[in-house]
Amino acid sequence: MKLALIALALVAATALAIVFTQTGERRVSLVIVNGTVVTMDGAGRVIANGGVAVDGSDIVAVDTAEAIERQFAGAERLDAAGQVVMPGLINTHTHAPMVLFRGLADDLALMEWLTKYIFPAEAKTVSPEFVRAGTRLAALEMIQSGTTTYTDMYYFEEEIAKETKAAGLRGVLGQTVIQFPVADAKTPADALGRAETFINAFKGDPLITPAVAPHAMYTLDGPTLMAARGLAMRHGVPTLIHLAETRDEVKTAQDQYKASPIGYLDRLGFLGAGVVAAHGVWVSEPEIAVLRQRGVGVSHNPESNMKLASGTAPVPGYLAAGVAVGLGTDGAASNNDLDMFEAMRTASLLHKLQSNDPRVVGARTALEMATIGGARVLGMADRIGSLEPGKRADVIVVSMASARQTPLYDPISHLVYVTRGDDVRTTIVNGRVLMRDRRVLTLNEGSVLAEAREWAVKVRAAVQ
Ligand SMILES: [Zn+2]
Fold first, then answer.
1. How many Å lie between the centroid of ligand 1 and the Cα of residue 115?
2. What is the DSSP letter of 88?
3. Rounded distance, CA 169 to CA 51, Å?
4. 154 C-alpha to ligand 1 centroid (Å)
5. If you measure from the C-alpha of residue 95 to the centroid of ligand 1, how many angstroms do you get, rounded to a whole number?
6. Strand, helix or coil at 259?
7. How sure is the predictor about 115, in pLDDT bands with cuts at 50, 70 and 90?
8. Residue 245 alpha carbon to ligand 1 centre in Å
9. Average confidence (pLDDT) over 155-179
10. What is the DSSP secondary structure assignment for residue 117, as one 8-state letter?
11. Does residue 182 register a pLDDT over 80?
12. What distance in angstroms lies between residue 239's CA and the mean position of ligand 1's atoms?
């Protein structure tokens, strides 16, 4: 009897040992399990009790939690019970350092806002130190609110790139080219030279995609626009431009070139694959077809467009025509934050109101624009924008536990209509955990905020 019991115990122990060695046989850097995995893949899969295995910079498996635990042993294991695991959000248009102008002046007409506040403040404060401090603050806010890739157009972009890398974020960063003298370039030729140096310094970087950012058709002459475009094409990098943002821009194009902004740029031969057009508000039906034919992606910035009363972009028309559409916050001076959850919600509500149809820009469409749609706009859909094996591990874990999120019937509805950036618990980029359970690991939160407050003193003095 005793012997039999011992024998039984031995058998049980052996069986357990076998189960143990079979569990998580493949060693990987990170597994996330027990969450609701919203993949945003082509099939739109949502896995109720799911998991993601990450090795180094890449996603190696997306499956049920049970299958992930059976196959993989993570050096780090995140339990995401009660939370959503999803691709990190992609901001397709911002000016990161402008967070230092947040709330400086609001509720003004665009030209008064620009000429009385933003341009004077920029003229007196923008420097390598300013953009570094601003980028650190923006990066902190983005990590805290679940943005893993952002697209930038500003000055001293190489400094922005260094801070972006240090914070661990992915960036498509465009060196600005503009006709008039600015902080980092006296002439457009200087700016083009800076852009090329910047491209050469960061080309092939795992986190930074350098880009050229000709500011807009109304702030550059034709030859400079085409020189910027040519530079981007020679290096195979994106071209970032503000396009058809306001009625004023349309009027300028008509007065100067007897064409619409899109008509003018197309006549120049500017439009093509790799162009990311921010705003695209004043765009007619035939021009939507032109953008589609040329392979131009559009960054939709609903909050900035509403705050500056620029107009409503024809997003349902873009989507129907098959134009790639992503979401952007624009600079924090005209938003006033970098929260992509707000951008999703605002986009959805704005187009329902505008089209008088609640079926327009539903929750899944808004979520697509903030993830895989944004990846398409940036030409990065093979690497980011969804949770799929072989893609980079840009992943966020979002709490669904607040009163605001209770009860939970449909995670996609909640992500768009009730979730806020603050609900993001964990942010991972390229397989590296940047924030774990609300603690940012790559930036010193206290010193980033203190430094920003110090800059605010100089900014305030600059506009008095
Ligand atoms: Zn902008």
1. 15
2. P
3. 23
4. 9
5. 6
6. coil
7. confident
8. 9
9. 98
10. I
11. yes
12. 14
The b/e string for 254-281 (b: 16+ C-beta within 10 A; e otherwise) is eeebebbbbbbbbebebbeebbbbbbbb
Q: Is the bond leading into 200 cis (omega within 30 degrees of zero)?
A: no
**277 Cα to the center of ligand 1, angstroms:** 10
Q: Using only C-alpha atoms, what is the Rg of the chain? A: 24
Cα–ligand 1 centroid distance for 419 (angstroms): 25
Rounded distance between C-alpha atoms, residue 279 and residue 298, angstroms = 7
Q: What is the C-alpha separation between 107 and 89, in angstroms, rounded?
A: 28
Query: One-letter amino acid identity for 246?
Result: T
CA of 328 to the centre of ligand 1 (A): 9
Give the contacts of 2 (CB within 8 A, at least 6 positions apart): none
Q: How far is the CA of 334 from the centre of ligand 1 (A)?
A: 9
How close is the Cα of 279 to the center of ligand 1, in Å? Answer: 8
CB 442 within 8 A of CB 135: no
Largest CA distance in the chain: 101
How many Å lie between the centroid of ligand 1 and the Cα of residue 152?
9
What pTM does this model have? 0.94
Residue 291 has pLDDT above 80, yes or no: yes
327 with 301: CB under 8 angstroms?
A: yes
For residue 21, pLDDT over 50 is answered with no
pLDDT of amino acid 464: 84
**Average pLDDT estimate for 275-280:** 98
Compute, in angstroms, the gap from residue 372 CA to the centroid of ligand 1. 21
Q: How far is CA 84 from the centre of its chain?
A: 19
Assess contact for 318 and 351: CB atoms under 8 A: no
Ion ligand 1 residues within 5 Å by Cβ = 330
Query: What's the confidence (pLDDT) of residue 24?
Result: 77
